[in-house]
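user: Here is a favour to ask of a fellow structure person. I have my own habits and do not want them to colour yours. Could you put it straight underneath, so I can go through it closely?

assistant:
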Amino acid sequence: MSNKAVISLTTGLEDSEKVTVAFLVAVGAAENGRPTLMFLTKEAVRLAIPQFAHAVACEGCPPLTDLMDRYEKAGGRFFVCPICFDARKLDKGNLVSNAEMGGTVPMWNWIGDEAATTFSY
């Protein structure tokens, strides 16, 4: 059985609580040693742009910047949907260090032939 975790996120800062929950799941997996990938699509692709993810979803919620830092330090990676990114006319040369352009085929290649635990937000 694989210990990989894949979190698919379609939501951006228009729903910062949903983004926070997705990051809490991803951080938990990565900090517990699971190879962890967040697949960012739709408005979530903007989260891969440096200095974009500034939000505190609710009273008592950790700042999104803190969660992103923890995710990177734990080895978490992002695949950013190139179709969604291009549709928003964003700069592919301006991504956070643990992000790369990658669609569904690279995601499936990353998972490989083993099962993976998946979450979708």
In short: The radius of gyration is 13 Å. The mean pLDDT is 95. The first strand starts at residue 5 and ends at 9. The chain is about 35% helix and 15% strand.
